[in-house]
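User: Can you write out an input/output pair for a complex, sequences first and structure second?

Assistant: Here is one pair. Inputs:
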Amino acid sequence: MATLTFLGATGTVTGSRYLLEAGGERLMVDCGLFQGEKALRERNWRPLPIPAASVRWLLLTHAHIDHTGYIPRFVQDGFQGLVFASAATVDLAHLLLPDAGHLQEEDAGYANRKGFSKHQPALPLFTYQDAIDALQQFQAMDESKPLELSSHFSVRTYAGGHILGARMLEVTVKENGVARKVLFSGDVGRPHQLILREPAIPEPPDYFLLESTYGDRLHPSDDVRSRLASLLAATADKHGRLVVPAFAVGRTQELLYLLRELAAQGRMPNLPIHVDSPMAIDATDLYRRHHEDHNLEMDRLEAGGIRPFSPPGLHLDRTVDESKALNDASGPLMIISASGMATGGRVLHHLERALPDSRNTILFVGFQAAGTRGQFLESGAASVKMHGGEVPVRARIESLGSLSGHADYGEMLRWLARFPKPPAKTFLVHGEPAGAGSMRDKIRQQLGWEVTVPAFNETIAL
Ligand SMILES: [Zn+2]
């Protein structure tokens, strides 16, 4: 009997891991890290309920760590199969996974120096080298035709619109002469993407695993171009700094795209724009190169000889010295730097310099999770802790919530309504309990679909 097991992303937006079994073969879709609360993170240290060596293939919806970050550990545990993903996802994983291994090593080293780990010594979940080793097993899919893995499994992809390389994966599971289509939405992007193709309308599957991150929330409907233009104008007038903590993959490229567009419309003051993040610079290069993911507007710009991510005044700061030099720069400037929630990275130095001065603006462009410095600042904190000191907040704090990698529930429902017929059964995954529950009720009421929220480690017969 063919089965589907939910090994993660149940009751949480992290740890995406799903197992398909048919004819004695095992295939996994996504292999993510659990992130956030300690009880969730501890799951990363527990082995999966099946031997890693028994899984033959791993498929990835996209490169985010909550969908890929367990792979180095999984390989250490004995997984020897191939990891299939879109070409752009394979390239992004080469940036993100070694970086995650490096961070794991840094965290373990920090815990050992401070002596606050109950494990002696504290160990990283995986190292930089583990990540490099695991990448040997990655293979880019030829998406022009179905990927035939065996007599039991074949795979087709659809555009996901979430980040570069994101795909929905349709797995056809065959056993005893019966074929069933299981569709994994991965993370679903918003419609009308700036850069990427928007989420496709897939053929209706038998079983549908749908993400529900924004199942109970709507994005603000602000005019992102006008707000960005007025913040830039204010920064230029006051000779201040506009510091944007931004995720290296996705948000940074959307900002650069918008800045170039504003400049072309004459709505951009004359000030230098610094991207101070080696990973963001590398990711931008991948966004530029992977034409297969671009939407028609991107094709049109490039055909016209326009470089969509190169606004006038752009500087790419790769080295630490270039980053430090920004501290002494005079005159108005904009700095885009990671991390996106101000939890670490080079952006901390820029915040430390910019926060105490009322001429400056800090602009958040992504979701700020509870407990992060970004969230403290967004909620109006008078000061924040940074590098062992207390930094007063006199700068203006702004947020652009409408730049998001996820469709909200309104967009999701309109997208689902375009499916030619309902899936036989829909499972809501990748959502907090409130988000998934709210989404389930809305889909039932508005679309009449059969939909449930699965439990951790629950197995379904297909
Ligand atoms: Zn994602």
